[in-house]
Amino acid sequence: MAIAPSPVHLRAEAESRGRPEDHEAYTTPNMKTPLVSALLLTLAAPSFAQDIFGYDIRGGSTFRSTSTDFVGDFTTLLPANLPLFAIDFDARAETLYAVEDITYAINTIDTTTGQVTPTGNSVTGLVFGSGAIFVTGLTASADGSTWYLSRAVGNTTQIYEGDITTGSFTFLGTILNQVIIDISMSKAGEMYGISLNTSSLYQISPIDGTAAFVGSLGYSVQFAQGMDFDWLTDTLYATLYAGGGVGAFAEIDVNTGLASNLEVTTALDAEMEMAVQFPTDDFIGTNYCQTNPNSTGASGSIAAFGNAFVISNSVELFASNLPNSSFGFFLVGENRGFVANPGGSAGNLCVGGMIGRYVGMGEIQNTGPTGGFSLVIDLGMIPQPNGFVSVQAGESWRFQAWHRDSVGGSATSNFTDGLEIDFQ
Predict the structure, then answer these.
(1) Which of 12, 32, 128, 137 lies at a 20 to 30 A Cα distance from 222?
(2) 64-114: per-residue pLDDT in tens?
(3) Buried b vs exposed e over 203-223: b needs ≥16 C-beta within 10 Å?
(4) Nearest CA to 286 among 423, 120, 190?
């Protein structure tokens, strides 16, 4: 049976900072043991280096670091001395938001300077209850507009849905009769939280807040904790804290709840809230190859939006500057090439070697009135003459679009330029 936190326990452990009024926040009487998990003796290693930003509650300062060398890259940015217990980046990983405890004021944190700036808004729509009340977590949804906020009310935790830019939130329900000390949502929309009472991971419904037990962390947590997903690799990172300056930067298995230690953070003497700044989708690739104008007088062009990490599988191809109401499709191959006017075309083929065509169901496009078309591709299903293949990290692939055209009443075809993407 979980033991409830005492109502007199406040928000952050800071006895070494000369603030006895803040001693033993977010703790439970049965969590008075030091870090004892044998699991944390086994080191794991993150796959990609991601920037991590956060707030050291124990030291009262903003910080930045990386996922591959958290302690070595740890840099204190700027003192803030604010009770920032809930932080996360927006869905584009551009703006880092932080909600203050007690006042629920909404701030942004500058990732260059660490400056904390009030937005002028505070969280509204909160349902109050009896007992000590603390904000515990904040997380963004991948839809770009929906946010979730958790807060402890006595020995229960409430979950809210809302808009961090306005501060308007709506109560969804009670997660558990336990203190969920932080929450984070995956890019796929799965939300998780850490129970302070049992040092365990729970999956939380974004509809009504109901929770399902996943498993023990294998680590006794006390006080404030930090946790956030890297949306690129779908990795759940955490800055776990056991009290007295003892902590670890860890990766949490969302299938078992177990926390694998990446680095011991005790040397930092820090109690940290954290957020991962993952790479966001953008235009990728390098254009190449000589093109010939089509019937519009312009040369067709190709572009790709997404990111070059294979594990993300996030690439959308675009063809533009094409004649209206013309059919076309994309080509793909591993080599550059150049064939002038293949098959009597008015354009040039810029993909060489084994060439695949995106001509499956729904893949042959029509430019319509916009003079362009696009296609989301699956990096695990690249068409080739002998079947489908998967893109591997370290490979370069070339793309081009072919399209029908008409010049002087005579039917012909043309091509865009080529696009080379170096995948990681």
Answers:
(1) 128
(2) 999 999 999 999 999 999 999 999 999 889 999 999 998 999 999 999 999
(3) ebebeebebeebbbbbbbbbb
(4) 423
- Output the six-digit token pair for 299: 């040369």
Q: Which two tokens stand for residue 206?
A: 């974004």
Token pair 């059919």 is found at 327
pLDDT tens-digit profile of 202-248?
999 999 999 999 999 999 999 999 999 998 888 999 999 999 999 99
Structure tokens given for 290: 């000589």
User: Side chain identity at 420, as an amino acid letter?
Assistant: E
SS3 217: coil
H/E run at residue 104: none
Q: Which amino acid, residue 4?
A: A
- 227: closest CA among 257, 178, 277, 192? 192
Output the CA–CA distances (angstroms, integers) from residue 209 to 73, 84, 148, 161, 302, in the order listed: 36, 23, 10, 10, 44
Neighbouring C-alpha atoms within 13 Å toward the C-beta of 408:
1
User: What strands, in cross-sheet order, belong to the sheet with 105-109?
Assistant: 84-89, 96-100, 105-109, 116-122
Read off the tokens for 70.
């958290």
d(CA 351, CA 334): 8
* Nearest in space to 205 (alpha carbons), one of 169, 180, 234, 227: 180
Length of the chain: 424
For residue 46, give every residue at least 6 positions away whose Cβ sits within 8 Å of its Cβ, in sequence order, or none: 67, 68, 233, 235, 237, 251, 262
Q: From CA 390, how far away is CA 372, in angstroms rounded?
A: 27
The four Cα atoms 45, 47, 50, 53 give a dihedral, to 10 degrees, of -30
What's the burial of 187, exposed, middle or buried (CB within 10 Å: 0-12/13-18/19+)?
middle
Tokens of 98: 């932080």
